[in-house]
Specification:
By secondary structure, the chain is an alpha+beta fold. It has a single domain (about 5-75, about 85-295), classed as 4-Layer Sandwich (Double-stranded beta-helix), CATH 3.60.130.10. It has ten helices and 15 strands. The strands form four sheets. A seven-stranded mixed β-sheet has the order 1-2-3-13-5-15-4, sandwiched between helices. Strands 12-6-14 form a three-stranded antiparallel β-sheet. The protein has a three-stranded antiparallel β-sheet with strand order 8-7-11. Helix 3 (about 90-95) crosses helix 7. It is globular, with a radius of gyration of 19 Å. Mean pLDDT is about 95; it is low at about 185-195 and about 195-200. It binds N-oxalylglycine (OGA) and manganese (II) ion. Manganese (II) ion binds next to loops. Manganese (II) ion (MN) binds next to loops.
């Protein structure tokens, strides 16, 4: 007999640690419990799974179609040397240290992301999440009213520019990440970076408050890619978006995971923001990322 599935909620409005299960060999019953916990807790941590690329993708496919089948997020070159701080990929990874939700700058934003730890620095490099449903519920009624009908544009060019990366370096970084892709990534070296054309031509416009397609509960939909609320000055828009992030990403609505190699985490991009925590950039860190596409019926931008 296997160990019994155990889902232990974190001491926050989101998150749970799941043990007593092997993600590579889920029974239907275990899968149903995990899916229910995903909708309830939004972030699930599975310690010590050591999934292969294919197993991680297969776990992702239980949630839906993948938009990223498998992508290493690493500051290491293929020869093992650590990329310098001005390397375009490193600058993209540094961007991940700001609170964000995945693919909000793409025509269809992400449903879920699954991250596993492959190589870790001696300290730092944790991942943090913040609960945008609990944040919305904690807002003053006046603020809820103020933002009820507001929208913002979402752009990776915009968010990377804010951390000092120009568009040319960003496009090079995306191409380099694509070249890092191994078997199962669905990408090959030399392909045109998929983000580029889509992002530059028409950044999607998305509501600041969005009902979750499964639970129906409203959540803030914000983060570092959001900017330029129509009808507001650039400064006023920036101030409001920053104020919302600052308010939202505080206890009891935040969770941080200190990784061990082999751990897996999945999160609901429709309900949480996430960020990487800094680490000494001379040390390697490699995470493996699988992304589940949003339902076009509910996650398409305007
Ligand atoms: C991601 C991401 C944060 C981290 O995988 O989308 O933002 O801690 N990762 O690496
Ligand atoms: Mn991310």
């Amino acid at each position: 007999m296997n160990e019994r599935l155990c889902i232990e909620p974190a001491d926050a409005t989101l998150g749970a640690t799941v043990t007593g299960v092997r993600l590579a060999e889920l029974s239907e019953r275990e899968w149903r419990s995990i899916e229910a916990a995903f909708h309830e807790r939004a972030v699930l941590i599975f310690p010590g799974q050591h999934l292969s690329d294919d197993d991680q993708a297969a776990f992702g496919r239980r949630f839906g179609e993948l938009s990223i089948e498998g992508q290493p997020f690493t500051n290491q070159n293929p020869d093992g040397s650590v990329r310098p701080p001005d390397d375009p990929t490193v600058q993209l990874l540094r961007g991940n240290e700001g609170w964000h939700t995945d693919s909000s700058f793409q025509p269809i934003s992400a449903k879920a992301s699954i991250l596993s730890a492959r190589k870790l620095p001696s300290r730092g490099g944790e991942t943090g999440w913040a609960d945008m449903r609990a944040a919305y519920e904690a807002l003053e009624p006046a603020m809820r009213e103020r933002i009820a009908n507001l929208r913002a544009y979402h752009s990776l060019f915009h968010s990377q520019a804010k951390v000092g990366q120009g568009s040319e370096s960003m496009v090079n970084g995306l191409a380099q990440m694509q070249a890092d892709g191994r078997a199962g990534t669905g990408m090959s070296p030399g392909d045109t970076p998929r983000y580029e054309a889509e992002v530059e031509q028409a950044p999607p416009l998305r509501p600041l408050v969005k009902a979750h397609p499964v639970t129906g509960r409203p959540a803030l939909y914000i983060g570092r890619h959001a900017y330029g609320i129509p009808g507001m000055s650039e400064e006023a828009s920036e101030r409001l978006l920053q104020e919302l992030v600052d308010f939202a990403c505080r206890p009891p609505r935040v969770l941080e995971h200190r990784w061990s190699v082999g751990d897996v985490a999945i999160w609901d991009n429709r309900r949480v923001l996430h960020r990487a925590r800094p680490w000494d950039s001379s040390e390697p860190r490699e995470m493996f990322h699988v992304r589940v596409a949003g339902d076009p019926a509910t996650e398409t931008g305007l």
